[in-house]
């Protein structure tokens, strides 16, 4: 039985999973605490001065409750902290701790090595083409109707 060719969203999902699997396994092998995909997303979306849980949820495309769970798991691990927002007495900002910054920097260095492995496997031109296509301005999402 033959399967239809995967569409681009499926291929993007598989590629992201490949990177996450490599990153998470490499970090754990190096002795770092295991994190979930949602927790890793929090680090990628945090502003340097801190970000509210509501804003993190919006950026992640998840509910506030889901973002809250990811954040509080990372707070419990000592990687994030909650601090008062100097601009609003009612809001709290989430930001990295010194340990969280160390882990984040290690993760970024690990991703760079994973990218170099990918370049060895598919060629530097292939990685450059991927990066070029993904960073190009795609414009607004189109409204289309299938035949």
Concise structural overview:
By secondary structure, this protein is mainly alpha-helical.
From the 3D structure, determine the CATH topology of the domain at 31-120. Answer: Arc Repressor Mutant, subunit A
Q: Could you give a short account of the major beta sheet?
A: 2 strands, antiparallel
Task: Name the beta content range.
Answer: 5-15%
- Global shape: globular
With helices defined by DSSP (H or I, 4 residues minimum), what is the helix count? Answer: 6
The CATH homologous superfamily of the domain at 31-120 corresponds to Winged helix-like DNA-binding domain superfamily/Winged helix DNA-binding domain
Name given to the CATH architecture of the domain at 31-120: Orthogonal Bundle
Pfam family, one: MarR_2
GO biological process, one term: response to stress
InterPro entries: HTH_MarR-typ (IPR000835), MarR/SlyA-like (IPR039422), WH-like_DNA-bd_sf (IPR036388), WH_DNA-bd_sf (IPR036390)
Domain HTH marR-type: 28-127
